[in-house]
Structure formats: structure tokens, C-alpha cells
Specification:
Length: 469
């Protein structure tokens, strides 16, 4: 029990899990070259001995024990602010472990329907906290024909379902797609992808199991190849994480690890709870990206000597407005927090969904602005190897010169980051994730319409129209 070392984390990954990547079955993720960068990413969250990060990464639980802050249940606004600060310095492997906050968000409602399942949530959250585990958010089903319900599909396994109920547990079959860091965590926390009707009861399913559970198989892909040059790929070389198709091939789940098994009336609540915390993480990451866009835009303008160009300054102002609107939306969501019956507080649902929608709906426009500021060099800039070559490098230093005080190598690094973030490996991944992570734009629209005080707005409009006084 207690905080794990990086070595202990790596040892836990050598548990016989079944992992595929690029047509190869990988026996040990800790030694395979494809997992080099992903493991370096995950390692950031085990930096417990660093005095500058220890207070950020840890807190003391109700028993006075030191634990990772990803497991701290926010009870005050200060707790919530500390969680946001943590998220800004957390790897994505640690970030997805916030799935336990989603589970705890629905625990009170679940207790009224099935107290044993609610107790399972409490126990497994404490187990993960006490042993410093990492967990994946396993939610999106294959879905098949979207016009049909789960039980109406040609293949009944296109949504994860219960295929057998036993005295000691259930047997499940199906697949969950796009699961970030699934191959690098200890636990797979499975939740319904959407609200379910009573005739879809076998698909109203939530549970948690170790990755190495018999019948679990993970097929991986990443946006970046291993061992990319960090000069040419300043983002991709440091951020690559595999996304997994997680297969459940008749997997046995003991009852003490089940959170939902047919209680269809609560399936939507589980999905929405995860959506809130995932979108909160998305907004925090959005702010980080938006601030980077401002910095990159300002740098590339300075390097080109266009600081006084009115058109350019208008473009920079658009980037600033984007970053500050996201920042203010996040701040509002934290200051106007909401509370569950058991005292857990969480960001304001309407504010988080509105801010996430604003970020995603305008993300590609901000990329267009940044690429327009950068111009053609965003794509055509030669690589570091050419810069280091005695002949080619001399030409690059000559023809990439812009004005006194602007270092050519720095200029290349700025352009490389713009390309990598907006027009290359990490950039392509980010453009899709901006829209789809936490549900697409439609999901945020639904939640905005559902949580906005529409009755008050209608009453206000009627008063303004003179219909009522």
C-alpha cells in the first residue's frame, strides 16, 4: 500500500496482459520500443520525490496517509482548484484515472437502487487510491448501425453486454473503442456508452477489472511512431500515447467488481458523470493549447518583423480572445460548483459543457489563424539533419535569417512546433480529439439544453414581450 515507485509501476505492467500493436503481440510493454515514449509520459506522475511537485501530486486522505491527488474527492472550492492545478501538470495516463470521480458522482443515486453496487464503487475507489493504481475510462462501444438500439444490431456484441449471469458474477462480451492508455493502466473501468432502455438491460453495464483478466485483449494504435526527433517533432516526440480497442472475449467479472448489471434507468447517469469529468479535463487541456497558440503566434510574428502589421495584430487578438474565453469559462465552472448529496463537489455542468463546446467548435478556426501567420514554412521547413549538415546548414542559416536578434535555430523550433501541433502527427490527433473527446459537439449541445434554466429564460422573454407582468 502507499505511493508506488516507477519501478513498481513497471513491474505491475508485466502481468501477462494481452497486447497487440502493428500486427505484433507484445509480451512486455515495459521493454518494447513502441512503448518507450508512452512510458516516459506515464512516468511524470510518479515524480513523488521531487519537492517542486510533491504537494501538487499528493494529499493526505481521511486516515492521514499520503495518496495521489487524482483520488482526492473534492469537498471545497480549494480542493477543486487543487485538482485543476494537478490536471495541468498530469500525464494523460493519470488524467484518465479521474474515472473514479465519475463513479463517485453517481454513487448516491445507485445506492437507492442497489446498495451493494454502490458499496463496490466506494471499496474499489479506496483500493485504487491505497495501492496508487491507474485506471482507464472504458466507455465507447463499437455501436454498429447507429440507427438501431444495442439489442437490435446484426451482431449482439457490438455493444458490451452480459452473456451469462452466475452465482459468483457475470460473463461479458464485446469491445470498447478509442480507449486512451488502456495498455498502460492497472484497471479497466467499464461504463455504459449512453442511456439504455429496459429492453437493453443486458447492455446497462459497469464494472472494473484488472487489464490482465483472462479474455481481455487490447489492440493499439498511436498518432506517432516511436523515436521521433524532438527537434523536428517537439510535441509528438513527447506526448505519444496508444489508443486501444479493448476486447472482452467472454470475460468473467466477480460481483464485488460490478457497479451496474441491468439497472437500465441509471445507464445514462453513468455516461453523463464520466462526460462531465472528461470534459473538465478537456477544458483544462484546451486552455493549455490555447495559451500555446497565443505564444506561438506572437513569436512567429516577431520573427517575421510584422509586429506593427494591423492585420496580424487582429489575428493575434483572436487567439487571445479564444484563450481568455476558455480561461473564464473554466474559472466560472469552478467558482459556481455543484454538490452531490454526499458532499462531493464538481464543476458546474452547464459551464463546463458550454466552454468545451466553445473550444471544440472554434479550434479549427484558431489553427487556421496560426497557420496563416506562419505561412508556407509551416510545412516546407527542412529538418534538423539538414541544419547540422556543413553545407546545407550554412544555406539554411543564411536564408532563414530575418532580422538581428532572431536566432535561426529558435525560429526553426517555433515553426516545427506549429507544424507538429496543427499539421502533423500530434496535430492530426488533436484536431479529432478536440471534437470527439468527452463526446462530440452534439453531446455538449444536449447537456447545455438540458441544464440551462429554460423556464426562467422563457418567463423573462414573456415579461419583455408584455405577455406577463
Amino acid at each position: 500500500m502507499g505511493l508506488r515507485t516507477l519501478g513498481q509501476y513497471h513491474a505491475a505492467l508485466r502481468d501477462g496482459r494481452v497486447i497487440y500493436w502493428d500486427g505484433e503481440e507484445i509480451a512486455d510493454v515495459t521493454t518494447h520500443p513502441k512503448f518507450k515514449v508512452p512510458l516516459e509520459v506515464a512516468a511524470r506522475d510518479f515524480d513523488y520525490e521531487n519537492p517542486a511537485r510533491r504537494d501538487l501530486l499528493t494529499y493526505r486522505d481521511e486516515d492521514g496517509e499520503v495518496a495521489n491527488r487524482i483520488y482526492q474527492v473534492p469537498r471545497t472550492e480549494e480542493d477543486l482548484q487543487a485538482r485543476v492545478a494537478l490536471s495541468r501538470g498530469l500525464s494523460i495516463v493519470g488524467a484518465v484515472s479521474s474515472v473514479y470521480m465519475a463513479l463517485l458522482s453517481v454513487k448516491d443515486r445507485l445506492a437507492a437502487v442497489n446498495p451493494e453496487f454502490a458499496a463496490n464503487i466506494e471499496r474499489l475507489w479506496k483500493y485504487a487510491r491505497d495501492y496508487d493504481l491507474r485506471a482507464a475510462e472504458v466507455i465507447t462501444d463499437a455501436k454498429g448501425d447507429r440507427s438501431r438500439k444495442a439489442h437490435e444490431q446484426d451482431d449482439k456484441d457490438l455493444y458490451v453486454r452480459i452473456v451469462e449471469r452466475r452465482k459468483d458474477g457475470i460473463v461479458v462480451r464485446g469491445a470498447k473503442l478509442h480507449i486512451t492508455a488502456a495498455a498502460l493502466v492497472d484497471e479497466l473501468v467499464v461504463m455504459p456508452t449512453k442511456a439504455m432502455r429496459q429492453d437493453e438491460a443486458d447492455y446497462a453495464l459497469a464494472f472494473s477489472i484488472p487489464v490482465a483478466t483472462p479474455g481481455v485483449k487490447i489492440i493499439n494504435r498511436s498518432f506517432a511512431e516511436p523515436n521521433l526527433n524532438a527537434f523536428d517533432y517537439p510535441a509528438s516526440a513527447h506526448h505519444s500515447i496508444p489508443e486501444g480497442f479493448v476486447i472482452f472475449d467472454d470475460v468473467f467479472v466477480p460481483w464485488d467488481r460490478v457497479f451496474l448489471a441491468g439497472e437500465s434507468q441509471l445507464a445514462g447517469a453513468f455516461a453523463q458523470a464520466l462526460g462531465l469529468w472528461e470534459r473538465t479535463g478537456g477544458v483544462i487541456d484546451a486552455l493549455e493549447k490555447a495559451e500555446l497558440f497565443v505564444g506561438l503566434g506572437s513569436l512567429v510574428v516577431e520573427q517575421q518583423g510584422k509586429e506593427r502589421d494591423a492585420v496580424v495584430q487582429n489575428a493575434i487578438a483572436e487567439l487571445v480572445c479564444y484563450a481568455k474565453t476558455i480561461e473564464m469559462g473554466l474559472d466560472y465552472a469552478l467558482r459556481h460548483f455543484e454538490k452531490t448529496p454526499s458532499g462531493m463537489i464538481h464543476p458546474n455542468i452547464l459551464a463546463i459543457n458550454t466552454t468545451k463546446y466553445y473550444f471544440a467548435a472554434n479550434y479549427h478556426q484558431m489553427i487556421r489563424i496560426l497557420q496563416d501567420l506562419g505561412g508556407g514554412l509551416t510545412l516546407t521547413l527542412p529538418k534538423e539533419a539538414d541544419l547540422r549538415h556543413p553545407v546545407a546548414g550554412a544555406y539554411l542559416r543564411k536564408y532563414l535569417h530575418s532580422k538581428p536578434g532572431i536566432d535561426v535555430e529558435t525560429r526553426m523550433r517555433v515553426f516545427n512546433l506549429i507544424r507538429d501541433m496543427t499539421a502533423d502527427t500530434y496535430g492530426g490527433w488533436s484536431q479529432v480529439v478536440a471534437l470527439q473527446a468527452g463526446g462530440g459537439l452534439v453531446a455538449q449541445r444536449i447537456m447545455m439544453n438540458r441544464t440551462y434554466d429554460m423556464a426562467a429564460a422563457r418567463a423573462k422573454a414573456l415579461r419583455a414581450a408584455g405577455v406577463v407582468t
